[in-house]
Amino acid sequence: MKIIETKIPDVKLLEPQVFGDERGFFMETFRDEWFKQNVANRTFVQENHSKSVKGVLRGLHYQTENTQGKLVRVVQGAVFDVAVDMRESSPTFGQWVGEILSAENKRQLWVPEGFAHGFYVLTDTAEFTYKCTDYYNPTAEHSLIWNDPTVGIDWHLDGEPSLSAKDLAGKTLSQAVKFK
Predict the structure, then answer these.
(1) pLDDT in tens, 69-98
(2) DSSP symbols for 63-75
(3) CA torsion sign, 150 to 100 to 66 to 63?
(4) Does the record carry Isomerase as a key word (predicted)?
(5) Active-site residue numbers?
(6) Biggest CA-to-CA distance, the chain
């Protein structure tokens, strides 16, 4: 597994070694010991899988209790995946990292605790999986508004995004609950 640094040092892009031929391919997507030694000393307790259609924007979500680190990847289609640093004490507070994750490039993004996370679907459909370091806690979940001009994310939009009511009600960075 190759580690690719991003402009926020705590967020890592992981690129697996893929072995393929005319029959298909094989790749290792996760190895606990390697991840703990090379990326973050974390244990994953939950894995989720979602499917969305083109133009759906999910996020930017985070939990202030049961904080979640996420290892995310796309198994079908492509998304533009984004992490925003919500840690007030961080030198990268309010900054964002965005990467295209696809079934084709097979890359994964490590989004540590203390970050808001979201993605925008670029293809007709996309299936997205993510491992989490803690369990989902809806009572502690928050949403950073996707289009906050202070954060200034370039989502690579193709028209107006499709958003849930929860995501439409997201808070701006100045209003949002933050981590210390």
Answers:
(1) 999 999 999 999 999 999 999 999 999 999
(2) ESSS---EEEEEE
(3) positive
(4) yes
(5) 61, 130
(6) 53
What are the pLDDT digits (tens) for 5-40? Answer: 999 999 999 999 999 999 999 999 999 999 999 999
Per-residue CA distances from 15 to 47, 94, 138, 178 (Å): 19, 26, 31, 30
What ranges do the domains of the chain cover? 2-168
Q: How high does pLDDT run on average in the chain?
A: 97
Who's near 91: CB < 8 A, 6+ residues apart?
Answer: none
Which CATH number is 2-168 given?
Answer: 2.60.120.10
| CA 16/CA 25 separation, integer angstroms | 12
Q: For residue 175, what are the β-bridge partners? A: none
Question: What's the confidence (pLDDT) of residue 110?
Answer: 98
Asked if the bond preceding 173 is cis, omega within 30° of 0, the reply is: no
- Give the CA-trace dihedral at 113, 114, 115, 117, to 10 degrees: 60
70 with 111: CB under 8 angstroms?
A: yes
CB-count burial class (<10 Å; 0-12, 13-18, 19+) for 146 = buried
Please work out, in degrees rounded to the nearest 5, the angle formed at the alpha carbon of residue 151 by the alpha carbons of 150 and 154. Answer: 120
Place of tokens 């000393």: 41
| Alpha-carbon gap, residue 61 to 124, rounded angstroms | 23
